[in-house]
Design brief:
The chain is α/β, with parallel strands linked by helices. The protein folds into three domains: 131 residues, Rossmann fold; 165 residues, P-loop containing nucleotide triphosphate hydrolases (Rossmann fold); 72 residues, Helicase, Ruva Protein, domain 3 (Orthogonal Bundle). It contains 16 helices and 14 strands. The strands form four sheets. A five-stranded parallel sheet has the order 2-1-3-4-5, sandwiched between helices. Strands 7-8-11-6-12 form a five-stranded parallel sheet. Strands 9-10 form a two-stranded antiparallel ribbon.
Length: 387
C-alpha cells in the first residue's frame, strides 16, 4: 500500500486529507510541523510527502530544502493557502514536485499524487536497473593482471585517448570498453557498440557512416550511422581486425579529421566521438599480410590494454565462481548454491579455451545439474575437461 506523509499544522486539514487518501487506499502518516516531518521522512520510507508552507518551528520551504539536502527519495508536493506564482516557482526550483493552493481541488490533488508516484516508481526502477547493470558488468578478480587493467582504466578513462583492447575471445574485452566509457566524462552520452565481424563487408560502411536515400537499391530513406549516433559519447569497434580495407580507410579519415561522409553523399559531417577498438587478432601480423592498415593501427593504439586469458589468471576462479553463482541465483530467483574447495580446485585444473564466457556457462550447468552444494564430483561429471 502506498504511504503518504502529511506535514501540516492544521489538524482539520490533516484529518480531511487522511479521510480522502485512506479512501483511495493510501496509508497516511501525519506530522504537525516541518521539524517533525523532516525527522519522520529521514527515519522512514514514504512514497509521497504533502507539505504545508506556513508552519511553526520550521516552515515548509525550509523543510523542503532540508529534505532535498538529505536526499529523501519521496516527491514533495507543497500545499499552501498563502501562495502565489513566485512562491510556486521558488518551491519547484528548490526541488518540489508540484505546488497546489488551498482550498485544495481534490481531483487535482489525486492526479498530482498519482503522477508523482509514477515518477517516483520510474526513478526507483532506473536506480535498480543501473545497479543491476553495474553488477552485471562488474570486473571480477584481484589477480595482478586484472589489478593492472583496473589501474589502467582509472588512468585512461578520464581522457579522450583512443584505446586498442586485445585478447582472446571470451576474455571480456567489451567489459573493459564499457568501463572506459562509464568512468569517462562521456558516460552521460551513448556507448555505441559495433561488432565488425558480424556485419557483411559490403554493409559495414553504411553501418558506420550512414547512407543517403537512394545510395544503393535498399536505401529507401536517409539513415544515420553509428558514428553519428555516438555523437558526444563513445563508439566501440569490436573485432576491428575483421573490417574491410575500404572501411578502414574511412575510419582513418574520421579519426584524422573528426569528419565523416555518408554513403552516397558528399556532405562532410563533423563528429565528436571517442573511439575504442578491440580485436582477438595479432594486428601486426595482419599488417604484414596486407589485411590491416598500419596507419590506422597507430591511430587506434594510443593506449594498448591486453586482457589476459582465464588460464593466465586462474587465481581469480574462486571469486568468479562466487560471482556467477550469485548472479545466476538472482536471475532465477532460486537460493544460491555453494561450491566446495575441492570443486574450486577441480575448476582450476580445466583448460579454459573459451575463457570467461565458457566458465560462466559451466557454472550455470553445474547449478542446474549439480547438488545443493556443488562438489568435486559434480565438476568432474558436468564440466567439460579440456586437458
Amino acid at each position: 500500500m502506498p504511504r503518504i506523509l502529511i506535514i501540516d499544522d492544521e489538524k482539520s486539514i490533516r484529518r480531511t486529507l487522511r479521510e480522502i487518501l485512506e479512501y483511495e487506499n493510501f496509508k497516511v502518516d501525519e506530522a504537525q510541523d516541518g521539524l517533525e516531518g523532516l525527522t519522520m521522512a529521514q527515519k522512514e520510507k514514504f512514497d509521497i510527502i504533502l507539505c504545508d508552507i506556513k508552519m511553526p518551528k520550521m516552515d515548509g520551504m525550509e523543510a523542503l530544502e532540508k529534505l532535498m539536502d538529505a536526499a529523501v527519495d519521496a516527491p514533495v508536493v507543497m500545499i499552501s493557502g498563502h501562495g502565489n506564482i513566485e512562491t510556486a516557482v521558488e518551491a519547484v526550483k528548490k526541488g518540489a514536485y508540484d505546488f497546489i493552493q488551498k482550498p485544495l481541488d481534490l481531483n487535482r490533488l489525486l492526479v498530482t499524487i498519482r503522477n508523482a508516484m509514477d515518477k517516483s516508481n520510474l526513478v526507483t526502477e532506473t536506480r535498480t536497473l543501473k545497479k543491476k547493470i553495474s553488477k552485471t558488468y562488474d570486473m571480477i578478480g584481484d589477480s595482478p593482471a586484472i589489478s593492472k587493467i583496473k589501474e589502467m582504466i582509472d588512468k585512461v578513462a578520464p581522457t579522450d585517448a583512443r584505446v586498442l583492447i586485445t585478447g582472446e575471445n571470451g576474455t571480456g574485452k567489451e567489459l573493459v570498453a564499457r568501463w572506459l566509457h562509464e568512468k569517462s566524462p562521456r558516460s552521460g552520452s551513448a556507448l555505441i557498440e559495433v561488432n565488425c565481424a558480424a556485419i557483411p563487408s559490403e554493409l559495414i560502411e553504411s553501418e558506420l557512416f550512414g547512407h543517403e536515400k537512394g545510395a544503393f537499391t535498399s536505401a529507401v530513406a536517409q539513415r544515420k550511422g553509428k558514428f553519428e549516433l555516438a555523437e558526444g559519447g563513445t563508439i566501440f569497434l569490436d573485432e576491428i581486425g575483421d573490417m574491410s580495407l575500404s572501411a578502414q580507410a574511412k575510419v582513418l579519415r574520421a579519426l584524422q579529421e573528426n569528419k565523416i561522409t555518408r554513403v552516397g553523399g558528399d556532405k562532410e559531417i563533423k563528429v565528436n566521438v571517442r573511439v575504442l577498438a578491440a580485436t582477438n587478432k595479432d594486428l601486426k601480423k595482419e599488417i604484414l599480410k596486407g589485411n590491416f592498415r598500419e596507419d590506422l593501427y597507430h591511430r587506434l593504439s594510443v593506449i594498448l590494454i591486453h586482457v589476459p586469458s582465464l588460464n593466465d589468471r586462474k587465481e581469480d576462479i574462486p571469486l568468479l565462481a562466487e560471482h556467477f553463482l550469485k548472479s545466476i541465483a538472482d536471475e532465477s530467483g532460486n537460493p544460491k548454491k555453494e561450491i566446495t574447495k575441492d570443486g574450486i580446485k577441480e575448476l582450476q585444473k580445466i583448460n579454459w579455451t573459451g575463457n570467461i564466457r565458457e566458465f560462466r556457462n559451466v557454472i550455470e550447468r553445474l547449478v542446474i545439474l549439480g547438488e545443493k552444494t556443488i562438489t568435486e564430483k559434480d565438476v568432474l561429471a558436468y564440466a567439460t575437461r579440456k586437458d
